[in-house]
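If you are new to this repository, start here. Below is one unmodified record pulled from the training split, so you can see the exact layout before writing a loader.
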Amino acid sequence: MKASTRDLFPSFYDAERTASSVRYIASVDRTLIEDGTYFVIETNAGELVACGGWSRRNKLYTGSGDAAEDARLLDPLTEPAHVRAMFTRADWTRRGLGTRILEACEAAAKAEGFRRLSLMATLPGVPLYERYGFQGLEPKLVKMPDGITVDAVEMEKPIS
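And here is the target side for that same chain:
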């Protein structure tokens, strides 16, 4: 996560925003692991090269800090499942790994009755999400706990 952010974000953000993102966005959310909704892709040698997941909980993204409603379970009939914490190591991008993780997220969310997926995309991820069928709802400024803001895009797609 941290290597991906450190290496890919400078093409989209300045050094201050990249450093804040490495600290606050590129961190493991244990809830995704505990919920069994996080996926990783490893090489044959066991190197982790991509990761990402989805959540049936209210928290939309890691950099938001903690809020009282974060753990609330979403209603699959009226609310979208949240795609979260997608990272690909810079030397493994453009090989379909992100798409494979999105496919796994979509299938798992669909199996639980969700009809839509949503996410808060940092700028490096927007092209992947658009290719996968997500549509931008609106640009956002995400405020990190250190006060730094990072440009992002709220996105959503129906589950097919």
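Two things worth knowing about this chain: Strands lie at 38-42, 48-55, 81-88, 116-122, 135-143, 149-158. The mean pLDDT is 94.
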